[in-house]
Amino acid sequence: MEEYQFDEYTENMFVETLTYNEAESIYMDIFNKFNEKFDLLIDFLEEEDLPAEKLSEAEKITSDFVKTNITDEQKCAAENVLRVIQKAIECGTYVCFEF
């Protein structure tokens, strides 16, 4: 797999894009839970990797959130994150969050 360079996409990458508002709408319920559970620092200032060995737990956190009473914007954003996590599990790789 090729190394990713900022703003440079390769054919072996799966990319989902969230608007700032979408990302902000799920920050506390998904990204902050990832931060606490996996000792990460997902924020809007830098990229952060979610290691492959943490993806099953991250999938459960995200899937559980999608099933709750949330706004359409939150559901759309969470489903995008869930798709990325599931694709990474399928490919045996990690997820990189870049804002």
Keyword list:
99 residues, mainly alpha, two-stranded antiparallel sheet, 2 strands
Layout: helices, strands, pairs:
Layout (H helix, E strand, L loop, with lengths): L19 H19 L9 E3 L4 H12 L5 H20 L3 E3 L2
Antiparallel strand pairs: 1-2
Helix pairs in contact: 1-2, 1-3, 2-3
Q: Would you give an account of this structure?
A:
By secondary structure, this protein is mainly alpha-helical. Helices cover 52% and strands 6% of the residues. It has a two-stranded antiparallel sheet. Helix 1 (20-38) packs across helix 2, helix 1 (20-38) packs across helix 3 (72-91) and helix 2 packs antiparallel against helix 3.
Question: What is this structure, in a nutshell?
Answer:
By secondary structure, this protein is mainly α. The protein contains three helices and two strands, in the order H-E-H-H-E. The chain has helices at about 20-40, 55-65, 70-90, and strands at about 50, 95.
Task: Tally the helices.
Answer: 3
Q: How can the largest sheet be summarized?
A: 2 strands, antiparallel
Helix content percent band: 40-55%
The total count of strands amounts to 2
Q: Can you write the helix and strand succession as a string?
A: HEHHE
Termini separation comes to 22 Å
Mean pLDDT, rounded to whole units? 87
